[in-house]
Amino acid sequence: MEQNSRLNRIYIRGQSRKAERLLKTLLRRLGMGEIRPKVRLENMSDRSQFKLGQIPEKDIRVREIEAVADTGAVINLLPQDLVEALGLEIVDHRIVLLANDQKIELPVAAGIWLTVAGRSMSTDCHVGPPGCEALIGQIVMENLDLIADPLKRTLTPRPESPYVPTIKMRGLSAELVLR
């Protein structure tokens, strides 16, 4: 990752921390704002080794964090220091288009078991600079059938599928699946 150290410095020009704090305060007072669910992240490889009896459960690398549910992001973003603490493997690199139309290359880490709003799935993530905000993207929200409520600032299961996620799938009929 050292070859991409330039990626660890992403600056937003023209925005001061004071203005950012003021905006967040204003959004809080208006009753709307960021959705920041609690998220549990596990190293899937560690979990598999535990199930095979190769390591004790206490050795599974787990972190519980607060992340921003970002309906504008497709895939998750985790800070480099968190990815390293979880021991995740970098498997690829992708070009990412930021909200300001800037393109940057980010590493992709694999092997995460993610739990949010009581639902879990395996997933990958983009790796951001150390200390950046963790983002939960659309893929997780869609796969876990979660809806974002900006007024209540929560991610919750869709009322139509309160117990198990329901995924829409076109081009597949029940007759083909039930054979």
In short:
This protein has helices at about 15-30, 45-50, 80-85, 140-145, 175; strands at about 40-45, 60-65, 70, 75-80, 90-95, 105-115, 120-130, 135, 145-150, 155.
SSE layout:
Blueprint: H1 17-29, E1 38-43, H2 44-51, E2 62-66, E3 68-69, E4 76-79, H3 80-86, E5 89-97, E6 103-116, E7 119-128, E8 135-136, H4 138-143, E9 146-149, E10 154-157, H5 174-177
Parallel strand pairs: 3-8, 4-7
Antiparallel strand pairs: 1-2, 1-6, 5-6, 6-7, 9-10
Give the CATH topology.
Answer: Cathepsin D, subunit A, domain 1
Distance between the termini: 48 Å
Q: Quote the beta fraction.
A: 25-35%
Low-confidence stretches: 1-13
The count of domains is 1
What does the largest sheet look like? 6 strands, mixed
Task: Tell me the overall shape.
Answer: globular
Q: Tell me roughly what share of residues is in helical segments.
A: 10-25%
* CATH homologous superfamily (4th level) name: Acid Proteases
Mean model confidence by pLDDT: 85
SS-derived structural category: alpha+beta
CATH class identity: Mainly Beta
Number of strands: 10
Radius of gyration: 18 Å
